[in-house]
Amino acid sequence: MKGSSYVRFFAMIITSTLVMLALMYSTVYAADHIWWSSTKAFMAVYMGAAMAVVMLAFMLGMYTDAKKNVAIFAGAALLFAGGLWLARSQQTVEDVAWMKAMIPHHSIAILTSTRAEIRDPRVRQLADEIIEAQRREIAEMEALIAELEGQ
């Protein structure tokens, strides 16, 4: 029973991490603005690692194998540090990966600029300029991705 509870713990953490990754795309303006982002994947990894630490700490009474708990805490710390470093350093992100990460980011700016309850005309003008700029930049990035990927 004890071993299966750890399997269930890891299944819970992995599932939650994948759900968090999917939810990071929930604020894009349009579905076609969803592109794979290694940066978002790195973020999901370090958030999942942090969640593993928090959840295990709260449920230590259910998980009583000290060696496994230490291994989980240590592994989570390594995953957290590695994921955070990869997300912040952008060491693995090149041209196409950068644009694929930026499209959802720009799309969020379109969503918030379009749907916010903006009443001041100066702020509305700024929001409209942001919408126009982000749409133009998304189109440019999509064209560059197609060109660089040979489509």
Automatic annotation (TrEMBL):
Keywords: Coiled coil, Membrane, Transmembrane, Transmembrane helix
Coiled coil: 124-151
Bilayer-spanning residue ranges: 6-31, 43-64, 70-87
Domain of life where this protein originates: Bacteria
Start and end residues of each DUF305 domain: 90-144
Keyword Coiled coil included in the entry's annotation: yes
Pfam family, one: DUF305
Keyword Membrane: yes
Protein name: DUF305 domain-containing protein
Taxonomic source organism: Rubricoccus marinus
Lineage, highest ranks first: Bacteria, Pseudomonadati, Rhodothermota, Rhodothermia, Rhodothermales
